[in-house]
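Action item from last meeting closed. Structure (54 res):
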């Protein structure tokens, strides 16, 4: 079963705010871990926010 956009957003907020997920659903955990991995990769490359164009 696919996750609703509302649930995906709640998982995204939990991951970005560094909250625990509180769920053991494998699909939700996979999305949470994927988001956390992308955030970690972005922090290592110093890609935070919007780049300046001036």
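Sequence:
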């Amino acid at each position: 079963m696919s996750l609703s956009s509302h649930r995906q957003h709640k998982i995204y907020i939990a991951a970005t705010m560094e909250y625990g997920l509180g769920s053991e659903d494998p699909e939700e955990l996979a999305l949470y871990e994927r988001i956390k991995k992308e955030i970690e990769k972005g922090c290592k490359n110093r890609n935070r926010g919007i780049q300046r164009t001036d």
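Note appended to the action item: The chain has a mean pLDDT of 85.
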